[in-house]
Structure formats: structure tokens, C-alpha cells
């Protein structure tokens, strides 16, 4: 029983550690990419603008293993019909790596990189 508990605890710690490390590293980069590619002109982290908020997107695709690939393609090619009639334009000039970074960040809820999220709008 002792061993069992230890294994579970360790697995949990590993998962947490991985998630928060990946997050801390990627959020700053992802945010920079999102800003540079005007994603934030149509999206906000916590409220709907032209497109859905990144938190809405994260909630919708929670637990969907296909989501990173599916959404990377969607960002690259553009499209509509999932959230409404307004289409998202294609982003053909973005590198796949940049798209992937931003999509993973979006799927994590688009959290702020550092403590810069305290603007009260
Ligand atoms: C001109 C406005 C606009 C820009 C710029 C834009 N988006 Fe979107 N985005 C939308 C709209 C509108 C939707 C909803 C599309 C739909 O209903 O299928 C959307 C949907 C999405 C989705 C969810 C797609 C789905 O199928 O559920 C993701 C992820 C996303 N955008 C990420 C991004 C990223 C990353 C960028 C920057 C590279 C970006 N968007 C730039 C308008 C925009």
C-alpha cells in the first residue's frame, strides 16, 4: 500500500511539473507569436471578440487528443462554422512550429506569460 501511494503521488508530481514547466516556457513565446501575427486583434484570452476567447477554445477541446493537430491546420488554412459564421483568415506565412506553439498555448487557456494579466477591463 505504501508503494502504491508513492507511485501515484510521483506520477501526479511528474505530470504537474511537466505541465507547469512547459507552460512557463511557452507562454511568453506563444504570446509574442500571437501578438506578432495579429491573433489578438480577433481573440482575447478571456472574452469573445471577433473569434472565441482562448479560454472558450481550451474548454471546448479539453481532453481532445486530436485538437492540437486539428487547430493548427485550422489556424493555417482558416475557416468558419465551428463557432459561427464569421471566418478566421488563413495564416499561410506562419511556420508550423509557431502555429503549434500558439495552439498549445491556446489549448492551455492562453494564460499570461508572467504576471501581466492584471489589467482590469
Ligand atoms: C480576422 C480575425 C481573426 C484573426 C486575425 C485570428 N482569428 Fe482565430 N478565429 C477567428 C474566428 C472568427 C474564429 C471562429 C471560426 C469558426 O467558427 O470556425 C476563430 C477560431 C480560432 C480557433 C478555434 C478554431 C476551431 O475550429 O475551433 C483557434 C485555435 C484560433 N482561432 C486561433 C487563432 C490564432 C492562433 C490566430 C493568430 C495566428 C488567430 N486565431 C487569428 C478570427 C480570427
Element layout with pairings:
Elements: H1 2-36, H2 54-60, H3 67-77, H4 96-107
How is this structure best described in words?
The protein has 121 residues and is mainly α. It has a single domain (2-107), classed as Cytochrome Bc1 Complex, Chain D, domain 2 (Orthogonal Bundle). It is built from 4 helices and no strands. It has helices spanning 2-36, 54-60, 67-77, 96-107. Helix 3 (67-77) packs across helix 4. The protein starts with a helix and ends in a 14-residue tail after the last helix.
Q: Could you give the distance between the termini? A: 50 Å
Mean pLDDT: 83
- Rough shape? globular
Total of helices: 4
Q: Provide the CATH top-level class.
A: Mainly Alpha
Largest sheet: none
- Tell me the CATH architecture: Orthogonal Bundle
**SSE string, helices as H and strands as E:** HHHH
Strand content: under 5%
* CATH fold category name: Cytochrome Bc1 Complex, Chain D, domain 2
Radius of gyration, whole Å: 16 Å
Give the names of the bound compounds: heme C
CATH superfamily, by name, is Cytochrome c-like domain
Amino acid at each position: 500500500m505504501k508503494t502504491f501511494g508513492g507511485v501515484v503521488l510521483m506520477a501526479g508530481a511528474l505530470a504537474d511539473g511537466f505541465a507547469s514547466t512547459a507552460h512557463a516556457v511557452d507562454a511568453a513565446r506563444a504570446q509574442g507569436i500571437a501578438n506578432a501575427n495579429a491573433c489578438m486583434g480577433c481573440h482575447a484570452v478571456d472574452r469573445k471578440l471577433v473569434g472565441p476567447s482562448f479560454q472558450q477554445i481550451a474548454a471546448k477541446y479539453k481532453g481532445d487528443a486530436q485538437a492540437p493537430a486539428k487547430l493548427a491546420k485550422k489556424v493555417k488554412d482558416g475557416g468558419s462554422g465551428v463557432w459561427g459564421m464569421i471566418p478566421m483568415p488563413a495564416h499561410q506565412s506562419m511556420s508550423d512550429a509557431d502555429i503549434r506553439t500558439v495552439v498549445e498555448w491556446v489549448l492551455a487557456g492562453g494564460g499570461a506569460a508572467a504576471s501581466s494579466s492584471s489589467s482590469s477591463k
